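Reviewer comment 2.1 asked that we show a complete input and output for one of the modelled complexes. We chose the NAP case, as it is the one discussed in the main text.
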Amino acid sequence: MKLIDGKEIANQVKEEIKKEVSQIIDNDEKAPHLAAVLVGEDPASQTYVKNKEKACKRVGMISSVYNMSAETSQKELLETVDFLNNDPEIDGFIVQLPLPDHIDEDTIIQSIKPGKDVDGFHPVNLGKMMLGQPAFLSATPNGIMELLERSNIDTEGKHCVVLGRSNIVGRPISVLMSQKEKPGNATVTVCHSRTHNLEEYIKQADILIAAIGKQEFVTADMVKDNVVVIDVGIHRVTDDTKEKGYRLVGDVDFEGVKKKASAITPVPGGVGPMTIATLLKNTLKAAKKEV
Ligand code: NAP
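Response of the prediction step:
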């Protein structure tokens, strides 16, 4: 069984980005600049934005954070987005989600200039992805494709079963896995809460991508031998033996399934670490005007 080490692969990606950024700087050009807008004081969002700042520093990019109070109106946020859209110093930016209830996330996402939408949530980027055109791909599906490619997982002609059809994971990864490219060229089945006989589909998977948000849902008896498993789920389980009082598990029972899998991502340390690496990759693309 091969462990698909997301931490290691994310580090490789960051090192490659760092090299490119230092070449840009050596050529007397401006370092790529990623901005983040943070509305309110959600602790998870604060941590995430802090990690992005740290990652930018590590690869030599400029980062800036626009902290706005939880009472910020939608109009004020739209004005900030407009400012960032038009600031030539900023190559790409993200508006950290979730937003407070009085702000409509779709309106905000659609107000971001697609060429600066490094989160890849704008409908133009999603549409381009559908058409196989250069686009900013969102972090999780992009990270999964990177993991498959760098782990030399052969996807061509394989039956890929995706559990989940969310707009941020299941749906985009199903499109990417079926794209006429490498990695891709898989035959894809998308399963969701209305799927009948779910286990029959899981059993057929050569590649299983689990993103259903159900703790350790996929067990060893459900999968076939030599399956490749990408576990997207993240769940906190109380564990008094850990310093933090909890441990993280995925949508897959890792200990059981790893005995049958030919390759598998752990949780933590699989898909998760790829998120920031792919955001940096998108920022570099934005700076190079590749999208
Ligand atoms: P989501 O929006 O809750 O979507 C879950 C999907 O699973 C839905 O399509 C749902 O079907 C389907 N589903 C739920 N229960 C099911 C069941 N019993 N049988 C079959 N299908 C079922 O979740 P998400 O945002 O895609 O995230 C999925 C998981 O990945 C979560 O644990 C989340 O925390 C994690 N996540 C991790 C990362 C990372 O960086 N590692 C990033 C994003 C998300 P319906 O559409 O019919 O409701």
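Residues 6-26 form the longest helix (21 residues). We note this here for comparison with the apo prediction described in Section 3.2.
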